[in-house]
Amino acid sequence: MEASAAAAVADGQxxxxxxxxxxxxxxxxxxxxxxxxxxxxxxxxxxxDGQIWQHVNGEDPVRVITADxxxxxxxxxxxxxxxxxxxxxxxxxxxxSDPDRAREVRSQLAGRRWPGRCLPPRTGAARGxxxxxxxxxxxxxxxxxxxxxx
Length: 150
Hints:
The chain has five helices and five strands. By secondary structure, the protein is mainly alpha-helical.
């Protein structure tokens, strides 16, 4: 270990005191909770016209354009709705202020079809064999079927 430390010092990687000395101003660290209470950078939201925007602190918001066009935008819009609905339920559960509304929101979450919950139909084998690719093991009419949240 001494040899490793000596090599690090020789490479300029050893410990050196801070250039401002011990009387330097302390670091002002924030907890993640404090930071995210005021910094919404990266957060997505929709405006009254249904456009999706990304918040950037201190800058103009950036309009979101999904890579796969209209379909991706609709899926993203649904995911944002899921996020907001789940956040509302989390807050209702945390405070316990309105159990009737919490039940209503919970049933709304359970009864809707959400993007990302669409799965290919299950066939006998989960994976194709080396001789038979997975696509070939599916019936030709197998489409993607969506299920509701559990």
